[in-house]
Automatic annotation (TrEMBL):
Species of origin: Cryoendolithus antarcticus
Residue ranges, compositional bias (Low complexity): 380-407
Biased composition (Gly residues): 359-375
Signal peptide: 1-25
Region Disordered, residue ranges: 337-407
Protein name per UniProt: DUF7492 domain-containing protein
This protein's UniProt keywords: Signal
InterPro entries tied to this protein: DUF7492
One Pfam family in the UniProt entry: DUF7492
Amino acid sequence: MAPSQSTRLLSTIALSALLASPALAHTWLEEMQVIGPNGTYIGDLGYSRGYMARTDPGFNGYSTKWQLPSPDTDIGRIRINESMFACHPAQRTANYTEEYPQLNVAPGSYVAMKYLENGHVTQPWIPAGKPDQSGTVWVFGTYDPSPDEKLTDVLAWTSDRTGGKGKGWLMAAQAYDDGRCHQLNQAPISINRQISFPNRIPGQPTSQIEQWCETDLYIPDDARVGSTLTTYWVWSWDTGMRTEGAFCGKDEYYTTCSDFQVIDGGDSLSKISAMPMIHTLGQQDPQTQAVRDYKSRTALTATPTVITNQSCTYGPSDVTTSSWPASLTVMTTMPLSLPSPAAPGPMPTYQAGAPQDGGRSGGNGSQHGGNGARPGHGNAFPTSVPASSAATNSPPAPSSHAPASPTTQADIVSFVTITIYTDSKTAAQSSASSTATISAAMAVVSDGGVISEMDQKKRRRHGRDLFGQ
Ligand SMILES: *[C@@H]1O[C@H](CO)[C@@H](O)[C@H](O)[C@H]1NC(C)=O
Ligand SMILES: *[C@@H]1O[C@H](CO)[C@@H](O)[C@H](O)[C@H]1NC(C)=O
Ligand SMILES: *[C@@H]1O[C@H](CO)[C@@H](O)[C@H](O)[C@H]1NC(C)=O
Ligand SMILES: *[C@@H]1O[C@H](CO)[C@@H](O)[C@H](O)[C@H]1NC(C)=O
Ligand SMILES: *[C@@H]1O[C@H](CO)[C@@H](O)[C@H](O)[C@H]1NC(C)=O
């Protein structure tokens, strides 16, 4: 019997992994703020409809999450359909409180719509089959919102305002990964960005705070002053076809619905700048600067493709990665080159509403953000962690701080040990049954071998080179 066909122990992996709790492994907009002429956030914060902060009494994983198809009520559906509401039940009307008000915007201004990446950016290989750049965010706008708005109707709106009977229009299409954001975890992408884009509490030079992501929305020059502009933020994080365990692929949309008051911003947005930043969150991102390329963000998929047909002709035999189990042997030979984690520092304290400069060292508009450190698309993987800190504008890396990862968000951190026994012959014949094993392996091995397999796989699936070569 050839060795490759024998049943063998592929690997035993005992490695601490930081995994967000499932309840938090989703995304919605946390807050929004206007970006001033020099790229700093200005004015007060604004919120979505029906917003609840993670620290609010009564908050749970369903308070603000709106996922379609719903894993709870659309059992078995892999595609959205015409019945599905665009907005969370608490967000179907302009449901606002004094605590979490609407954002004031001005024609011709940019808005940073901020969210937590929850590992979708820093551990993009979890789970398998997810899109490059962690998927696409589209933002749609309308002056004529309806409480019954359906997602498929909204997705039909176009940037030239003709689609979907012109009821609204497509305002932005951007990668979910803004090139800067990172949860604090031990994955190389995170460690790299903790060094390249340290997010520090003012006056606490050793603090490390999760860096939130943003969508950078342009408010058109012809936006109607005095009106309410309703926006639907729609993130598509679909699973591609021919993925193990999801042969037909699977839609996975998340939305957040918000209203903006369109006002006259004054010269250089002076009226917005003058609004004090008082509606901060208890766990507020100290960042003060938008990503460097906030005016030129792009997406791999500029317009959504809506498929409502549930039918699918793919099966296990169509999965293009049936060689996976064999390739997993790579894991056994890859050194685990992660820096050994330093003892976590003291929990940073942070006062909501405190003056914020994000720890930036002065500057005349020079920003740490944007494309600088984006480690390539296709979930490409830094080969060696601190050395590949790619940002040309990186500040000197405070190596003693970087790997320390004080967890300030309400993430639940688990330490897992996974042992994988795989019969490569059986697994090759039944990819479906090995899916869970493969995903689990990917979840804990944040190292070169598996990731490059992932990239090979994506390269095949998308039929193009993801490394920009
Ligand atoms: C408004 O939002 C709150 C959450 O902040 C939610 O509990 C409530 O049900 C919403 N009300 C309506 C009418 O949607
Ligand atoms: C959409 O799917 C749901 C089940 O999740 C079903 O109840 C509804 O009838 C479907 N709508 C259409 C238009 O097919
Ligand atoms: C749905 O997809 C199946 C398989 O691809 C196809 O045969 C069928 O005609 C489609 N149905 C509709 C209504 O488009
Ligand atoms: C402003 O930025 C430019 C280019 O980034 C730099 O050369 C210059 O030294 C900066 N000036 C100040 C005062 O920081
Ligand atoms: C950028 O603009 C803001 C608001 O107008 C101002 O407070 C800040 O000092 C400016 N920053 C720089 C570096 O010019």
